[in-house]
Specification:
single chain, mainly alpha, MetI-like fold, 12 helices, elongated, MetI-like_sf, cell membrane, ABC transporter permease
């Protein structure tokens, strides 16, 4: 295995992300209790052998709820990130290759950049109402412009390369050129930003759940667990702290993976993913 793939950060990120995926997939087998089962005799009980992370105010197992809460958080983060990455890449390379569309598509992207992502998400949910579909739309709307910018920036450089000119000279159509010549060069930086973006989406899902606009009860969700545990922070801190730690560890896992992927795929670059976005803009 090449040395660039043996970076400690990359290995740690891969291991943590795999652990998250395993916990999400096998939550029913790993969880010590049903996430909704109430054990009223153990209300607000601290960590014990029966309840590894304690119980909440309704006597529900916090560890079980964390494991089941990983499913909507990770599932939404990964699926929305894939969606916005695909949309952004398609629009970005289209803008770079078909120059008459460039100004129109990039001005539309600028309009989305003008609003903070959380504000746009709140606006979308307030119009569509709480629900899984509206949550996906709310998370996807502010996400695609950064991928479009990065894809356009890379594609603009690639379209002037000699091998692309030669491919066009022998009669290859635009679809072939985009698919075989430009897209392979666009995917590595987009993959890096998408990996980092999953951590950001986990935070957004938790933030919307904290505000009561995300995943709705009775489905366990980390942001909801956090807001429910804050009033009991003095008497039963394990409820809020468990949710906070789960969010932090998940974001750390994808941050390690994304940063290490950036260094492995482009070791000569000293730019962070945010710097790449700034250059692309």
């Amino acid at each position: 295995m090449p040395a660039k793939w043996r970076r400690p950060g990359l290995i740690a990120g891969v291991v943590l992300c795999l652990c998250l995926a395993v916990c999400a997939i096998f939550a029913p087998a790993i969880a010590p209790h049903s996430p909704d089962k109430q054990h009223l005799a153990h209300r607000l009980e601290g960590p014990s052998a029966e309840f590894p992370l304690g119980a909440d105010k309704l006597g529900r197992c916090v560890a079980s709820r964390l494991l089941y809460g990983l499913r909507p958080s990770l599932g939404l983060a990964v699926s929305v990130t894939l969606l916005v990455a695909v949309v952004g890449v398609v629009l970005g390379v289209t803008a770079a290759y078909f120059r008459p569309l460039d100004a129109l598509l990039m001005r539309i992207a600028d309009c989305f950049f003008a609003f903070p992502g959380i504000v746009m998400a709140l606006l979308a949910i307030s119009i569509l109402g709480p629900g899984m579909v509206s949550l996906v739309i709310a998370l996807a709307l502010p996400g695609w412009p950064k991928y479009a910018r990065v894809a356009r920036s890379v594609a603009l450089g690639l379209r002037e390369q000699g091998y692309v000119e030669a491919t066009r000279a022998i009669g290859a159509g635009p679809v072939y050129v985009l698919r075989r010549c430009i897209l392979p060069g666009v995917l590595p930086p987009v993959a890096t930003i998408a990996t980092l973006g999953i951590g950001g989406k986990i935070i957004q899902v938790a933030a919307l759940g904290f505000l009561g606009l995300g995943v709705q009860p009775p489905t366990p969700e980390w942001g909801t667990m956090l807001i429910k545990g804050l009033p009991m922070l003095g008497t039963a801190p394990h409820v809020a702290l468990s949710a906070t730690t789960a969010i932090a560890m998940s974001v750390l896992a994808f941050t390690l993976l994304g940063e290490s992927l950036r260094d492995a795929l482009d070791p000569r670059s000293g730019l962070t993913a945010w710097s790449q976005l700034q250059v692309a803009a």
